[in-house]
Amino acid sequence: MSLPSLETTPIPGLVVVRLDRRDDARGFFKENWQREKMVGIGLPDFGPVQNNVSFNSDRGVTRGIHTEPWDKFVSLATGRIFGAWVDMREGESFGATFTLEMDTALAVFVPRGVGNSYQVLEDGTAYTYLVNEHWRPGITYPALALDDPTVAIAWPIPLAEAIISEKDQHNPALDPSTAIAPKKTLIVGALGQLGRALQADFPGSDLVDLAEGSVGDRTVARLDLTDAAAVAAWPWHEYAVVLNAAAYTAVDLAETPDGRRTAWAANATAPATLANLAATHGFTLVHYSSEYVFDGTAEEHTEDEPVSPLGVYAQSKAAGDIAVGTAPRHFLLRTSWVIGEGKNFVRTMATLAANGVSPSVVSDQVGRLTFTSELSRATRHLIDSGAAYGTYNLSNGGDEMSWAAIAREVFTRSGRSGDDVSETTTEAYAAGVLEKGGPFAPRPLRSAMSLAKIRATGFEPEDAMVALDRYLAD
């Protein structure tokens, strides 16, 4: 058998690892923790930050059953134990148990929310474990009685003869009402069009934005990621996933002095803060970027194309992408021409059609629409499917189209003739804006992105025109 190897147990996520222990006349050597090999056999890349050792001088010492809010990798440096684990998490496996006699050739990965306990079978047993959060004094963690009749652990040494701490002698019985809830999801930018869409696929998420507010009956708390004190006070350890839907998207105003500062704060500084927090607290960071990070000269943009941003907005988004890439667990979704709840290009064209206006729309910018519902659906898919972390392009599917062609589609669906939409160029449109004294940011002329990578994960983007029909019908 190739070692290390992994064996599953009746408790979801709890796995036994058989270590590659090398014995000789002197004793033994083993790689107790080797990240590349452990992850390679299927162990979660849980990111340990602290190593603890519990030395047990006498046979019969019994500790537990403790349920701490972190993942744990337990093993022995010396001796033998009888280990017992109880699933204390909400769900069908609540109360499930697993026991195992362990020596120094075995280790067990214990996921957050699973109660951990052991009984020492040899004098001088050294129990060692890695955890992925720092221990904090003064915090009470859930516990379970060692003699709980429901789980009925068959301890090899009767508990009446065991050495048990005063505290562990008074642990409570199993109670479903105290089951441990999973870590939560946080949506940053919950009041924006993408943030609102994400709430449909991530119900029950905590919601924050730069200002307090509400979405339906849900309260949106205030959190400014540029406020160091507010960031430090936020309970980041409670989250498994953070969805960063916040962004500064006023591409033209970003060319002004005030806009430049705001764009960099929202699109670069805030994502960098979240990336650092993701590394510290171990949550998965999902961030949404833009095809504006490219100069638009490629026929089709792929995920590995080097960034080449043209304007301030684009530069700030590219900087944010680089920062997010440092988070150990991240999904970076690059998207284009986003359409969601509130004011946007499609709504504007529909209003113009209804009011009898015949607009002139640029025809030399080509790409695909991305509906926020599709972005949200793709996010849910990537997280649930176990897709590899990294960068993914995401837009709706179908043919590439110009803004003018999309405007015509909106007009025909609104009862107007597509011929009522005339064409102009980006250069001519920019000249008109600049002539009136307004700022104008350079645009990539080709925004179409390859969708091959996300399709390879099993996600099929919906045709943009099918999504447009539904959007206009709502």
TrEMBL record:
InterPro entries: dTDP_dehydrorham_reduct (IPR005913), NAD(P)-bd_dom_sf (IPR036291), RmlC-like (IPR000888), RmlC-like_jellyroll (IPR014710), RmlC_Cupin_sf (IPR011051), RmlD-like-bd (IPR029903). Keywords: NADP, Oxidoreductase. Catalyzes the reduction of dTDP-6-deoxy-L-lyxo-4-hexulose to yield dTDP-L-rhamnose. Belongs to the dTDP-4-dehydrorhamnose 3,5-epimerase family. Belongs to the dTDP-4-dehydrorhamnose reductase family. SUPFAM superfamilies: NAD(P)-binding Rossmann-fold domains, RmlC-like cupins. The active site is at H66 (proton acceptor), Y129 (proton donor). This is dTDP-4-dehydrorhamnose reductase. The keyword NADP applies.
